[in-house]
């Protein structure tokens, strides 16, 4: 029995998905992702402080709700849109409603978003069948 040689790692995230290395339709890198997360969380905190005397559970619910709502409507959270990213389904076609909801709920759990593959798709993206691309 011969050993199967390990495949060589891709040169850039998304290469095996047929996506370009840079520019539009390339996989959004971690810096942009964290920036978008900070913007989205900041909005949730501001709304929670303004209307709910900063309740941490309300902040989390606002974050998840805003993530799901804006991803359904414009294929991006507010932070994604500001930083030039969008969520697209791997299979093509429409994003639908269930993908953004699953994605937002898993992001709220934190751990799925921190575990990602060679294409920088977190477990939340893999479960929802999506990828975060640059516009």
TrEMBL record:
It comes from Microcella humidisoli. The chain crosses the membrane at residues 34-54, 60-83, 95-116. It comes from the Bacteria. Its main location: membrane. This is RDD family protein. It is found in: Cell membrane. Residues 28-129 form the RDD domain. It is a multi-pass membrane protein. Keywords: Cell membrane, Membrane, Transmembrane, Transmembrane helix. InterPro entries: Pra-immunoreactive, RDD, UCP021697.
């Amino acid at each position: 029995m011969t050993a199967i040689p390990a495949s060589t790692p891709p040169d850039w995230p998304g290469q095996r998905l047929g996506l370009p290395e840079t520019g539009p339709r390339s996989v959004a890198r971690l810096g942009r992702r964290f920036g978008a997360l900070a913007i989205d969380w900041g909005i949730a905190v501001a709304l929670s402080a303004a209307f709910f005397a900063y309740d941490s559970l309300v902040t989390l619910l606002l974050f998840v709700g805003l993530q799901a709502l804006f991803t359904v409507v414009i294929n991006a959270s507010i932070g994604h849109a500001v930083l030039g990213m969008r969520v697209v389904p791997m299979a093509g076609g429409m994003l639908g409603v269930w993908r953004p909801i699953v994605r937002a709920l898993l992001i709220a759990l934190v751990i799925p978003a921190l575990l990602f593959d060679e294409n920088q798709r977190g477990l939340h993206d893999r479960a929802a069948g999506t990828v975060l691309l640059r516009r």
